[in-house]
Write a structure and sequence with these properties.
It contains 15 helices and eleven strands. Helices cover 47% and strands 9% of the residues.
Amino acid sequence: MPPVRPWPALDLFGVDFDPVLAELMREGPVTRIKLPNGDGWAWLVTRYDDVRMVTNDPRFSRKLVAQHNVTRLAPHFIPVDGAVGFEDPPDHTRLRRAVAPAFTTRGVERVRERARESLDELVEEVLRDGPPADFTERLLEPFPLAVVCELMGVPQADRPQMHEWTSLILSSAKGAQRSQRAKDEMCAYFAEVLRERGAGGGEDVIGLLGAAVEAGEITASEAVGLALLIQIGGEAVTNNVGNMVFILLTHPEHLARLRAEPGIRPRAIDELLRYIPHRSAVGLSRIALEDVTVAGVRIRAGEPVYVSYLAANRDPDVFADPETIDFDRSPNPHVAFGYGPHYCVGAMLARLESELLVDALADRFPGLRFAVPVDRLRFRRGALIRGPESLPVTW
């Protein structure tokens, strides 16, 4: 048995790779960890092939996690019990099917033009006001919020409250009770909206969920849990693209190339997604339903297991020179959006938003640079999803 390594919650600067995770990767493909909250220890799987095996293997259950106080980073569970994040197939498949039309190519294309118009409006306001500007406040927070709310069907007047709730849910900085209260308030909001709209239909997520509840395909509480996860997940783009901006402005040669060769931008975004350590520690665990051997290590029934997508994306057996940002990397089978049944349902939407934002930064802001010394930039503290708190820039 490998030793149990404490993994504290670290507030890291920029896109610095977590030194604890780096050490765990060196210790072996399967190690044991103890996180700041919950009980006991858990296995950690870091190698690319093993990560994909565990996340796609029905012998590892998400559903059982809700019944155990597994060691974890967050002081609170983000998904509500019975939500899609804590379900296994076939229930997991049934729940995802309810909202799948919103996340198909057609569903995402439905919001593309509105997203482009929304971003253009924001960019024009920033350009009209002139430099300096905080890109986090002016672009990276309002744009993903507008897009996910458009997809969800959340009215304009309710969007600031959605953003406040999401910020509290995705952070432990103000304590577990405040995070839990924000989650409860968002759930109550969606429960009320679903009751009001009923089975009125529509192509937005709330319409799809209401129709699925009316048809008996999902329960009302399952619909609320799905709405919660999609809403808060939609704002992860704020932090991810914030990290992209940080990399591009601290490596101006990369930004210069994106301007000179716009055709490589989709490939560059894939590489940035692979490279960026977008979250702190690890996400949700799984529990072994039976004894399973992973990389020669016997994991016994009932033991919790985490995978690290961040570590998998740095596996040198899959990605040559993984510590280097290489916009020519091909193929690039990164797992930034996860793998297996729990692959991020909003991956296509997140890519769309990232591409639109990178296009705007490269094409609309010549001479873009930080307005303060890099070491004065602030990054979110106590956050589960890493990213800059502010990005003061000039051009």
